[in-house]
Design a protein that fits this description.
Elements (H helix, E strand, L loop, with lengths): L5 E5 L2 H7 L6 E4 L6 H18 L2 E5 L2 H7 L3 E4 L1 H6 L2 H6 L3 E6 L2 H9 L4 E4 L16 H12 L4 E3 L5 H10 L3 E4 L1 H4 L4 H12 L1
Cofactor: Mg(2+)
GO molecular function: metal ion binding; thiamine-phosphate diphosphorylase activity
Family: Belongs to the thiamine-phosphate synthase family.
Length: about 200
């Protein structure tokens, strides 16, 4: 199954209720600091929404819940890899996306046979404090050369206006967060993203 070129990341199923009817077909749910019992209900709701709309749900970090709910994808950061049971994830048939920020992390990710590699932040981001400086489009091109046919997801400061440059540099999929969630009209922005990336 080929993934869409537009990959928004949200922190609540409420965003999925807004995005999926517009035609978003690939979405990540990234929820931090939520008790697992509550988390399971939230993820189950997100999974049901995605199935109803024929969209792919990627669960960030919470691989146990993803396995329990029969999700299709999980995304792990480098810290998550330290604690995740990768054989269990693979036995459950989950596809795996992995975050990378430098060559050491990329080598580690590639050794785990991921289904996509993510690189960020391509541009400065306000989403979270990071020890990494902006990677820039040159790094996008370099990463694509190194990973070959694997899908390359780029994230960090991405906007509709910057998407074309990212694709030209070698990205297969562009991920966005605050360009949507902080926009005055998120639905209009989502429509712009879909139009730009289809």
């Amino acid at each position: 199954m080929s993934l869409d070129r537009f990959y928004p990341i949200f922190d609540s199923p409420k965003w999925l209720e807004r995005a999926l009817p517009l035609g978003v077909t690939l979405v990540q749910l990234r929820i931090k600091d939520t008790p697992e019992t509550e988390l399971r209900a939230v993820m189950a709701r997100a999974q049901a929404l995605c199935r109803r709309h024929g969209a792919v749900l990627v669960v960030n970090d919470h691989w146990r819940v993803a396995i329990e709910l029969g999700c299709d994808w999980v995304h792990l950061g480098q810290e998550d890899l330290d604690e995740a049971d990768l054989p269990a994830i693979r036995r459950a048939g989950l596809k795996l996306g992995i975050s990378t920020h430098d060559y050491v992390e990329l080598d580690r990710a590639l050794s785990l046979s991921p289904d996509y590699v993510a690189l960020g932040p391509v541009y400065p981001t306000i989403l979270k404090k990071m020890k990494w400086q902006r990677q820039g489009l040159e790094r996008v091109t370099e990463w694509k050369r190194l990973i070959g046919d694997l899908p390359l997801v780029v994230i960090g400061g991405m906007s509709v206006e910057r998407a074309a440059g990212a694709f030209q540099a070698g990205a297969n999929i562009v991920s966005a967060v605050t360009d949507i969630t902080l926009h005055a009209d998120p639905e209009a922005r989502l429509r712009q993203w879909i139009e730009t990336t289809r």
